[in-house]
Queue: 2 jobs
Job 1
Amino acid sequence: MRTDETGLYVDTEEELTLLQDVGEFHFAPTVSAKLHMVADLTITLLRPEPPGQVITQGGDIDNRLKTLLDALKVPKQPDDLPPEATPSKDESPFFCLVEDDNLITSLEALH
């Protein structure tokens, strides 16, 4: 292995790239393990319901947060994408927040 001009390790047979192909999409995560990055998120949950019912109405908060975090990461396989999904010309690359949701090291949910 060698390092590039920024000091990142580059495989001698393959250049460093953040792009990941899944199905017809070319995903580009802004937070990547290749760059030794992690994410610390603060999320404000806005719901059209009275205060105190964020957990009792519309599903539990754990499932809501899991759905949100899944939507912020690069899909692992084409089956994770909606059926018949194809990128439009302005969605290449398709930017995602994180390469994998295990790079989210801290999460604060506000209401």
Job 2
Amino acid sequence: MLLKDHWYVAAWAHEVTRGLLARRLLGEPVVLYRSTAGDPVALEDRCLHRRAPLSLGRVVGDEVECGYHGLRYDADLLTLAAHTSSAAADRVEVTG
């Protein structure tokens, strides 16, 4: 039996870098990364807009930018801004 609100190992210290690391903890998707100060950060691996995995986005400063619409989240999972120059927007091509 696994209990919520208890300590569990999510990764080895060397695995958590400035890049995004997707993990599943207690059946929940989590994304791990380090802040610019080197502190580990763990967020739910879901964008609040369309529930896209944040782990498919990128780290910008101390924020995670969703690869789908470019919404950015800080360590408290607060939406900071939508950026039109996101990785997803850079891949969009309009033809007609």
